[in-house]
Amino acid sequence: MKNGSLLAAIDLGSNSFRLEICRYSHGLIQRIEYIKETVRQGNGLDADRNLSSAAMERGWDCLSRFAERLAGFKANQVRVVATQTLREARNRKVFLDKGHKILGFPIEVVSGREEARLIYQGVSHLLPSSPEKRLIIDIGGRSTECILGQGKLAKVLESYRLGSVASSMKYFANGDLTAQAFHKAEVAAKAVMDEALAVFPKKSWDVAYGSSGTAGAVAEALHAAGWPADVITRKGLNWLKEHLIGIGHVDKLRLEGLREDRKAVIGGGLSVLSAVMDLFDIETLKVTPGALRHGLLYDLIEREDEHKDVRAITVEGIQKTFHADAVQAQRVSRVACAFLKQLQPAQHDPLDWSRHLKKLHWAAQLHEIGTQISHTDSHKHGAYILDNTDTPGFVMHELHRLSLLVLGHKGKLRKLDIDFEDAYFIYQLLSLRLAVILCHARREPEFEGMHLSLSSQVPRCFELKLEPLWSQRFPQSSHLLQQEVLSWQKTSWELRLMAD
Known about the structure:
Low-confidence stretches: none
Helix content: 40-55%
Mean pLDDT: 93
Distance between the termini: 44 Å
Radius of gyration: 26 Å
Structural class: alpha/beta
């Protein structure tokens, strides 16, 4: 990453959408601009977990304004992530597809634990260096993340379906701030968080921090009322709760320090925060400015270095866990990536193509992880592992794409639930399947004279050119390639073998 580079992160939260633009300088980020809009998408989920049209429109309108500000940014300068509301929404693809078109950048739906990892990364980079063991609590609109870590390393990551928007909708739906409503909301929050006590025992951390959202709003309101800055105590929480009960309704709130956009969700947020501090026996919660969006920015920086990219480290860890043959994986990767490079369109962005190559490399590294369970159906088990394993660094659709490549690296194509209209995925899939075929003997194949290209005459037709006498020298590989030709005939694509 060059000094002076601009970076941008967008956090599509359940309550607010946030855009942060920073400049990279000598390993640090310096804020250029910060925009926050209250969208309240979390209010738009119905009983069937479908996002309402109105909630989608609010989100798209906000993204159109963000898009104007991001004009001129390149793909490697921007990351956009969505959290709990879009994790839950059954119709999220509708929002994501249009949102991608509006922004010009893909929207990544992160898992709860990946959200927690990114939060810790943002918090740890903005806190002073210290050997202290930290408990980070981030109460969002529909989820609460808890993280145990030390220094820059997050050690325990959890996410719970509990947040300020969801709690406010259920227990403060009419805006009434009553003692009974607070009691019910806190009891319900403790029921959800009770299991966290075993995961985050008091002895496992030295200092507790509140990140972003609810913690920041409560701290600002308390400070405006004369309490210490950037600190929340249980005494302060109790004072604020009694004050709100005395006011009686959100429409009557005129509390200095409490922003207008926070009034509607303050009841639920305060209830969750009070429940968490009680359960964890936290007397003092320090409030830190670090948040998810800062973690995204530092993640962008680290992805520039293969040795720091969390995804590459995760892939290596999964490979070792399932005892996959690392030598064979590297062999398959070299061949697969060589074929994919031959398919690169002349006008395609080299940086974007490098991402396709990187993901193909990871798929090759992982294509045999299912052999520990079953050799015959290893591709199916490998795909299942990837779709159901916590994998730091990866977002949900990115991981699913890897699982589809692993599932499709051998076997029948027509039974795969894949998008045959996604040309670049098909390029990756064919490259991987050809590499697996040529490396079937688990030794270095002779493929330097081969050339894979798209036919200039026939749409959706690949041509694999072979050197003269290659088929006679390698009859088994030739037979497998002929079978591969038949496999593609049952799809909307075609593979032809061409002898020079």
